[in-house]
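Table S4 entry, Extracellular solute-binding protein, family 5.
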Amino acid sequence: MLATTGLAVATSGCLRHVRSAVNRDGLEPLSVTITTLPSDGDRESIRLTRRVRDALEAVGIDASIELLASDEFLRAVLVNHDFDLYVGWYPEATEPAFLYEALHSTYADEPGWQNPFGFTDLAFDDLLEMQRRTDGDERRDAVAETLEAFVTHQPFVPICAPEEYRLVRSDRANDWRRFHPGTPLGYLDLGAGGGEIERLRAVHTDPRPSWNLNPLSVEYRNRGLFTGLLYDPLAVTPAAGTVDDEGDPPLADGGKADARYHPWLAESWEWAENEDGGTLTVELRDDCRFHDGEPVTPADVEFTYRFLVDTTLGGDGVSTPSPRHRGHVAPVVVDEIDADGARIELPIAGGEPAAERALAVPILPEHVWRERSASTDVTGVQVADGTTDAVVLDNVPAIGSGPFEFVDRNEREYVTFQRYDDHFTLRNDVDLPGPTVEEFRVRIDPRSTSAIEIVSNGDADVTTDPLESYVVDETVALAAETEGVELLESPARTFYHVGFNFRKAPFGNPHFRRIVARLLDEAWLVDDVFDGHARPLTVPVTEEWTPDALAWDGDDPAAPFLGSDGEIDDVAARDAFESAGFSYDADGRLRVRR
C-alpha cells in the first residue's frame, strides 16, 4: 500500500502470476527519470510529480525524480531535450491554435515550446494544418477531429487547468477586472481607488525577471508579462480576460472561442485570401518610437519576423529560430515579406486565424538586435551549436517601444519600470488602454504566503504571479476581512501536463503513453494537489473548444482511470501493459527494448 501518497495499490488480496522472461532477449527493466521543479519553484509541479512517480512504481516501472531550478528545467526540456518525462505547465494555451506549434513534426528538433516532445506523425500534421487554414464552423469541426486524434495518440497527458487567483489593493487602484491580470493589458488603464496613484507596487514570486528581460528566452519567461509591457506587438487579444464592472467585455468577447485580435502597434490590417493561404496587409501607426528615441519602422517589423525564424539571419548556414514566438510566426513566408512606407505585406501559409496570431509577437528594434545574430559561447551552460547571442543574453537594459520602459533592477530584489510618455496609447486620438501610473516597481519575494502578507499590509498593490492553490481558501477569508483588499479570480491561461520524450524508448509507443494516461486520476489530483482549484482535463483546450464526446463528466472519457479515488488497480494496470505487448520479469518489473 502507498498510503502516504494516497495512491494505494489494489491487489484484491491475491498474488499475481508474472510471465516468464524466457526468449525475451534484448529486453530490460524500464527505469525512468521525471524532471520537474522543486517546491520553491512550483509547489504543484513537485506534488504532481510524486504522484506520477508512485503511479509508475505501482505498475513495475522504476521511477526517480530530478529537481531543477526554473531556468535549468526549461533549458533541459525545451532547449537540450534532455529528459525522459517531465511534469509542468504549458504557457498561454487558451486556444487550439497552440497545438500546431506544440505538436507539428516541423518543430520536432527546434528549441522552445515548439514540440519539445519530438512527436512526429504525418497524418496528425495534416489535421493541424487543417485547423490552421480554416475558420468558423469548418475550423471548429477541424479542431474536434484534431482533438479526437490527440486522445488516440496521447502525445502528452493533460492533467488540469488551474484557476488563477491574485490579491490586489482595490483601495489603491481599481479596474483590476477589466483585463486579465496575467497579461500586460491588466496593468494598463488602472484607475485610482483612493486618489491619484503615481507608483504601482507589485510583488512577484519568481526572481527571473530581475535577472533577464530577453523576450526570446524560454529559460527566463513564463508568460512574458513584463517583456510584454516593454515591447509592443502589432496586435493584442484580451480574449483570456475578465469583464468589467458592468459585465461588458473589453475590446473582445471575454474569452469566447471566436475572439479576435485587435490593432495595437498596427493601425489596421486587411486579409486577402489566395490559393496559398493569404496576405495580411498591415498599416503601422504613425510616429511611434522605441525607448531610445529611434523610430519604429516597417523595416523593424520585417526584421523581427526574419529574426524570429532564424536568429543567425542566414549567417551560420543553419537556421537557428527563436525559442519563443517561433510558433506564432510559423505561417509567415518570410522570404516574401514586403515593407514599403507604413505598410507591411505578410504572406501567410494558412488561414485568417493563423495570420492574426502572427501579429502577436514583440516588435524588435533592428538597430539593437541585428548585432546579436553572432554565435555565442556561454561559460558553464550547455548550448546547441549555432546558438546566437540573441537567445542567451539578459537584455538589460531592455529597449522596446512598449508602454513602460526599463529603469533599473537588483537581482532577486526588484525590477523597476516607468511610463513611456511617448507611447501612442497616451495620444488624445487613440482609444486604447495605456499606462496610468508613472512607475511600476516589482518586488521579488519567493513565497505566496509572504507575498499575500505584503499586499494585505499595504506594502504592495498586487501579486502578479497566481497564488499557490494551498493558500487560496485562507486568502478568500483574508480578503473578506481586510478593507481595501480583493481576491481576483481569472480564467486559466495554462495547464499542467506530463510530457514524454519521443526520442527515447518506449515513449514513442502510443500504447505505453495511453496506459500511463490511465494511471492518473485527474479529478483526484485536482482535489489532492490543487485543493479543488483547477479543472480536470481530457484535452488541452478551453471548454468552449472541447467536443461533447471529450467533455469531462466526472471521469476522463478518452483515458478512464485504472482504479478509483486515486487508488490504482494494480492487476488491471499490469494486464493493460501485457495486452499492449509489454512483459514483466520475475521481480514484477516492466521490461522494454532499449
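The chain is about 25% helix and 20% strand.
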